[in-house]
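Cross-check.
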Amino acid sequence: MQVWQLQEKTWELVSHWKVAGMPSHMAWSHPESGRLLAVAGQDGEVTFWEAPVHARSAAPTGEGLHYRHLSSLRCSTGRPIRQVLFAPVQLGLIVVAASDDGCVHMFEADTVMSPREWTLQSKLQVGPMGQQPSLCWRPFSTGTAPMLAAACGPSVQIWQHDLAHLKWKLHAELQSSSRQPICCLDWAPAMGRPVELLAAGSGSCADVFVLSRDEGGSSSSGGGGGGVVGELYEALQHQGAVWKVEWDLLGISLAVGTDAQRVYVWRADLAGVWRTTSLLEGDASASFGGEDDMRDEEE
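Predicted model, tokenized:
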């Protein structure tokens, strides 16, 4: 494991350590919970590491810079974990872990600072065995119950926490326009809009879905009451496979990264037509300096 920090336009290695097994995904917690790093593994275990207090003050080659191991948790299925994700900070210190058997485990910490114990709160089945899931939370807003989008294969499910029964319910299931497996999701901030926007990347396409409340009170899960319905709003085509989608802070512009080393920035005009407002191209010849390069520079 390596942690890099940007210092005056230069990335510097500030900490490195070894973990058991092979890491498959990592996620940072919100700063209010401290500098907490969750590391998911192929063995079905999630380990939590806390940043040392003076990580930046010592040289990367020095001793005692390894992040402090706080706790570990294991998903009940023991399958490789493909994604780990912290919930919005307003919900407390909650983490979800998605494994390749289509199962999502949701854990809550005993404390928001330096957690030592985690309790399983929910277990959701979002897809079949062998599919790589993708997750994203709905950004927190007052008056709306927590919502989670979970993609597995070419479909994405919308789950919402039922406060009355203290359990999660499936309210909608949407299909990607390409019918290919969805690899990434991002939920746009609501910002006063009457509808929600959800972006999903699959194949060479980035789909934009519109979610709204079911005024009739029905839902695809048959749960009834306060349901959510969704439909495909726009399918944005790209050159190369889509790897990453992300909304801006206002939920207006959508950035899409592809394996062609391009980042497209999309935005809908007043007529509702989506257009590319910016295009960034990467440099295939650029390289990232390793630990040896960092030591040479320091010497």
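Helices lie at 291-298. Confidence is low (pLDDT under 50) at residues 55-64, 218-225, 293-299. Passed to J.P. for a second look.
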